[in-house]
Amino acid sequence: MVGLVGITLLSVFAAISGVVVDFTASHVYNPAWPPHAQFHGYLSVARTVLIMAAVIALVWGPVRRGDRFAWGVLVFLLLGWLAVWFIAPIAVPGTGDRATYLFAGVLAPLYVVGLWLVRPPVR
């Protein structure tokens, strides 16, 4: 149960923080950003919210029932989402900052522990 609640709380935090931080004058609503950049900022937040909604649905649905495939999808979604936080600044130099790495660096081990706690039993 700790893993289910932990992953849920982390995912709600990730979804809400994306909306709170990115829909501001320094990001999506930054007048210096061209409209196409603002569009991509919106897409990034929307994807995060959708991924986190899928994560929560998986955790409380098939993963909770011990479905190994659903757990694999959960691992792929969460670790893939986290990997983007570390890979994007390498792919687009100058876009990474301390806050980016801190955000992903704190969430990553917490999610890994949560994933381990909700792993299906070995058959």
Task: Describe the protein in words.
The protein has 123 residues and is mostly helical. It has one domain (2-117). Helices cover 76% and strands 0% of the residues. It is built from 4 helices and no strands. The chain has helices at residues 2-22, 35-63, 68-91, 98-117.
Provide key terms for this protein:
elongated, 76% helix, mainly alpha, 4 helices
Strand content: under 5%
Q: Determine Rg (CA atoms, Å).
A: 16 Å
User: What is the SS-derived class?
Assistant: mainly alpha
Helix-strand sequence: HHHH
Number of domain units: 1
Q: Roughly what is the average pLDDT, rounded to an integer?
A: 92
- Give the distance, in angstroms, between the N- and C-terminal Cα atoms: 20 Å
Q: Helix count?
A: 4
- Global outline: elongated
* Percent in helix: over 70%
Give a quick account of the main beta sheet: strands, pairing sense, barrel closure. Answer: none
Low-confidence stretches: none
Total beta-strand segments:
0
